[in-house]
Amino acid sequence: MQLILSGCVGGAIYALFALGLTILVRTMGMVNFAHGEFFMLGAFLVFLGLNVFRLSYGMSILLALLGMALLGSLVYRTIFARLKAESHLSAVMATIALSSFLKGVARVLWGQNVYPLPPLMSFHPVRFGSLVLTSQDVLIMGVVFFLLSWFFVLFARSQVGKAMEAVSQSLRGASLVGMDVDGILMSSWILAASLGAISGILVAPMTLLFPDMGGVPLVKGFAAMVLGGFGNPVGAVVGAFVFGLAESLIGGYVSTNLAELAPFVVVVFVLLLRPHGLLGRFESSRVG
Amino acid sequence: MESQRIWSRLRPLAVRSFFALSWVLLRYLFLVLLLAVLPFVTNEYQQYVINVSFVYVLVSVGYNVILGFAGQFAFANHAILAVGAYATALLSLRGLSVPLAIIVSALSGALVCMAMLIPALRLSRYYLAIATVSLGEAVRWILVNWYSVTGGPRGVRVPAVEAFGWVLSRPKEHYWLILPVVVGLVLLTNNLLRSGLGRALVAIRENPVVAQSLGIDLAFYRLVAFAWGGSLVGIAGGLLAIAVGFVSPESFGLAELVKHFTMIMIGGVGTMTGPVLGAVLVSLLSELLRSTLALQEMLFGLLLLAILLVVPDGMAGSLQRILGKRESLLRDL
């Protein structure tokens, strides 16, 4: 039971992470390899707020979210707005280049050291019989549940969600019917960057802060997204929970080393056996 | 009478082609002399830098076969380089001579690269990018955790290696191994890509469906491209291990992949001269910043972004546009 619980917490984090990736797949039709760095920078901005500016925890989070939203819009304005009509190779390479650049910036500022981040709230772990629920677990589940439901409403019900769908299908078509394509794409970058930051802020107290911390979650986020079908938010969330549970159970019953290798194995095998994910539909594309 | 008339017509042509041919030969002779004289005018450190940049020429030419000519989003080049480097390092540690170790490097590079072929035939674009990035991370994970073989995160020190009875321990000695291998393989690749193989690859890259309907066997040509590109990068990995004398998992992260991207993009993707120029330029730059990973990450990230935004077809492409002529038909196809 304890394993299932920690699997759910892990799954919740991957869901948040995968959702940030999925937004950009939905709107830009591209994979963002710099999402791990959004994750890392969000946590580092909170650290900066707490330890350098001596702000309260809430203010630091606000600072981090504002900072990351700014970064997201900046990244879109300077880079991806110009690449949206270019070949896909350029856009994907650009996200890898961005990832390298942001990691380098973090390394210059914080060096190779590892920093701790205090948890947001701490009360004594709650016990239900043999189950132990830490405060951070409760927080993560709560925040993720809230954000997920908000996003599903956004995607499925609101004008913005429909506009995002339209933009992803045809840039030109969407702009022809009078949509503000740039605005929609920029807001999706802002959303993605903020989501990355939130997941970073939630995870960092449990792990530690260091410039390379985004690498492993990125692959796990891919695993979740791939499991659930590409660009499908429901699938991404389901995939994330399946993946989190599997990882926790393998780690508990078999070996933790194997659990570390699990994301890579999942990504490769799912892509080979069911390229469109467990829940994905097969979308045929026309010969261009 | 008749023959004299023909000769008087042919003579100017013969003279012209004689001079043209000797001009070409002279240029090659000059290049060969330049390369041969290099180790006599450099000190050991300069020679080391030249060696490494030559090795990267092979890396970038090999990767360009996959990325530029086959047009595949295979993002595990750093992992292939790592596998090649570790193969040579570990085998020469056990006393194997260099030619054999390099051959094993080539084979293992080709093998890893062909492992990517399975997803590359079934998946497109982003799926392949995700699968290969995951593969790259998996290789790094193995290098770090398979302690008994790879020596874990501390890496492996490569001993002085032995080739055909000579012991190669200093950069100037390494050069005589690296130079012929790199030059030979680059020329061979150049010729291969100008043959039907290269044209078929470009046709597949530009439009796989049309290419297949013309009778081009997509699976076969991708197999050849991946095997060839992979073995070139594997060999380059082996040479890199010898030239640097040390391999560790840390030096084969995503930053390394960004470096390879920069080399190819700065020169011009899908061209032959581009990756060669780019490799030399980028490895010299990275030698200047050698001590700090952070600066390398920042600089190459920024450089690659700038190239993608400002000159997407690289130096070779811009030169062509300025001179108004094409390097080859290949880019047109």
What features would you describe in this structure?
The complex is a heterodimer of chains A (288) and B (333). Chain A is mostly helical. Chain A has a domain at 2-110 and 135-214. Chain A has helices at residues 2-27, 35-51, 57-83, 88-110, 135-157, 159-169, 171-176, 181-203, 215-227, 233-253, 256-273; strands at 126-128, 131-133. In chain A, strands 1-2 form a two-stranded antiparallel ribbon. The longest helix of chain A has 27 residues, at 57-83. Chain B has 333 residues and is mainly alpha-helical. Chain B has a single domain (42-331), classed as Orthogonal Bundle (ABC transporter involved in vitamin B12 uptake, BtuC), CATH 1.10.3470. In chain B, the strands form 2 sheets. Chain B has a two-stranded antiparallel ribbon with strand order 1-4. Chain B has a two-stranded antiparallel sheet with strand order 2-3. In chain B, α2 (44-69) packs across α12 (254-267), α2 (44-69) packs across α13 (273-288) and α3 (77-93) packs antiparallel against α4. The radius of gyration of chain B is 22 Å and the shape is globular. Chains A and B meet through α3, α4, α9 and α11 of A and α5, α6, α12 and α14 of B.
